[in-house]
Amino acid sequence: MNSKVFLGPMSKNIVDTVIEYSNSFKLPFTFIPSRRQVEYDGGYVNNWTTKEFVNYVKTKGKYISVERDHGGPGQGTNMDDGIDSFKEDCKYMDVIHIDPWKKYQDYESGLNETIKALNLCYNENSNLFFEIATEEGIRRFEVDELETFILDLQKRLKPEIYKRIKYFVVQCGTGLLEASNIGHYEKNRLKKMVELCKKYGFISKEHNGDWVSIDLMREKFELGLDCINVAPELGQIETKSILNAINKLEDKEKQNELFEAFFKICLNSNKWVKWVNKDFNPEENKEKLINICGHYVFSYPEFEKIKNQLPNSNKQIKHNLIKKIREYHSLMDSYYKVLITTSGIGRRLGDLTTYTNKSLIKVGDKLAICHIIEKYNKNVEFVITLGYYGNLVKDFLELAYPTHTFTFVWVDKYKGEGSSLAYSLLHAKSYLQCPFMFNCCDSLTTNNIDIPNENTLFVNGIKSGTLYSTVTTVDDNISKLNNKGEINFDFIYTGISFIKNYTDYWTILDDNYNNNNNNIEIGDVDIIQKMLKKHTFKYKILSEWYDCGNLTELSERIKKLYKCNYTVLDKNNESICFFDDYVIKFFSNEEMCKNRIKRGNSLYPLTPKILGSRDNFIKMKLVDGQLMSNIKTHGEILKLLNWSKDNLWISTGIINGNFKEICRKFYVDKTMKRVKMMLDKLSDYTIINNINIGTIYDLFNKLDFNSLFTDECSHFHGDFILDNIIKTKESYKLLDWRQDFGGELYNGDKYYDIAKLRHNIIFNHTNVSNNLFTKEIKENEVIIDLKCNYTLISQLKDFDNFVLDNKLDLKKIKILTALIWLNMSPLHEYPLNEFLFYFGKYNLFLEL
Description:
It is a single chain. 42% of the residues are buried. Strand 7, helix 8 (214-222) and strand 8 (227-230) form a beta-alpha-beta unit. Strands 9, 12, 13, 14, 16, 17, 18, 19 and 20 form a 9-stranded mixed sheet that branches. By secondary structure, the protein is an alpha/beta fold. It is built from 29 helices and 34 strands. Helix 28 (810-824) runs antiparallel to helix 29 (832-847). This is MobA-like NTP transferase domain-containing protein. InterPro entries: Aldolase_TIM, Kinase-like_dom_sf, Nucleotide-diphossugar_trans. It comes from viral metagenome.
């Protein structure tokens, strides 16, 4: 039991959140339930009895201890002798605070009752520890009187009982009233009381640390205070979170109804009375009254009815509580933050960072930075430097990890003269006045990262001294950190480190940058090299480490390790990131993203539910089901077509003469533009598969483009391929819908969807990924061929029958399919682009 901060279990939410945080960091906390909160016959916190509460905490919390706060006569709901409560406490608690002073203000009476209670509890359980004395809101003690109290206890207690006294309450000017701390801090008094505790071997402990700034708490600890109690403030955080949830309701009538109901419950509880002065007017201070005593009524059935109408409030409560608990954690030696620098341009990655930040490149099913974030405790604070495409990094992280805490630091110079890793680091200095982990945004590992408690570099055994800084070691320590190019070394430095001596780190960085501010290569290595002259650095070996900022490594080693479980055709200007129950799609084009959102909401529930968005991102619910492209069952295509006819390709009821012009732009103008793009790159060979079919423009001259146009509008998907359709247990879900049809958001041509599906039956992702297409050019002739999926091709008959049965134009669909291949060709790299052009041209010839 070495807790520094002792917390009141004001609600089950608070208990659960503290336990989760404690477990995640292996961090000791002590709960201090008062007799009103938790008691042998039930308290106001979740109606827990003493036994139920302690068993709950001990079962779930590996690093939590429990102390009875203010145990003794008159400390419960009535002025009893406290004996029944003590006896139950002795069975389950780790520590009992012996506090008779509320009922017995006279020194001799209080002393006698303290001795009586200590004897009683020790006889019940000799393994207990005790806390003695009380806060000044109950009875003020002077230093001399406290020393007399200690000496009297020494004289009158058996030595074995006296030795079980561990904590001693000190007083330095704290007091609570109306949800604030009204005490007047007495620094000298604190010093004297702390010295008194040290003199007699007690752990000094202050009560009523609520609404005291973390800086003041830190000052008190630096003066020697060992522990501090906090209770009502946590309850108020939860209460305020609930009030905020009520205030965010769009229905103003419902908002007022829930607020008034909350106020009425609190008012009638009378739990607020002891916390206010006599002049307090409840009707004029409704919100203040709720804030004072809201936590007392969380277990009331009437309050549960309110809470049930605020379905997302628990997430915000937890987030706000963790923020406060993290502040308390910052007072402890084990506290740290995680720094990830994403401000650079990622020049080693070439075209991959044309549209995005290097930390957002695709690695497996996720983006690179996800593999870093998820290596660390989800409750730690991340400090992220932002520069190149910094808005994308910020937006993505906020969408992807809404319960995480990020501090974003903007860096103005991230390329060219004056920019450097050191410059970026300096911008984070004020946010990292504590030990921290540093993790370059392109440094990935599949090993666990255990947070050390001393300066440490994480290293790897690959022999690439020309590419990376390296280390030389002696025993468990690093003796030298070498610049790139070193031949003789033991390990390479991975760009992951733990900095314990952060003050010296920043001092050296300031000096280095000021002396070399135009050196774009200056970074953390330069700092650590100088720190090694004064400080010891340990090292930890990462057996599995990868540099995703290295294009060669990214394409070879990393893609083999971080495999994709979802079939996605990667693009530099679009990507998709998969999580357990949602996905996030990135678009470099903001207008496209905005229109995708509008169309997604319009098509819902045929599409996944959109959970959130930013300028370049859409967050959607992950759909449970099977991609249609993976289903190898005959008849599935026909089922899909029939479902789409009934649910998707429904007429909008609009007959629009202008829609034919939209079709012209979409089918003709776009095709001509794409074809020209290809003709700038290749020759328009006229002989394909031993048939002279003429030039592409010869074919266009034979094509009656007007036959492709319609004035009948329908709902549409826009990229209706099997990889964009999931078969669920009940139905289908449509993915990756097109943002518009020739500029139209809600009116489209169902023929385009049907042609897209025909294209995908013949030519799909499997053909591409397995290189099942061939293109040969010999003496001004082209030979093309394609190996198709038998299960899909065998369903073309079902496809054609569906078209004919529904009186659709099969020839038009086949022509559109050929145009689709022509349009796709300039969007792909060689040799796929050339294959698609000739394949589309050849199939167009076959239909004319």
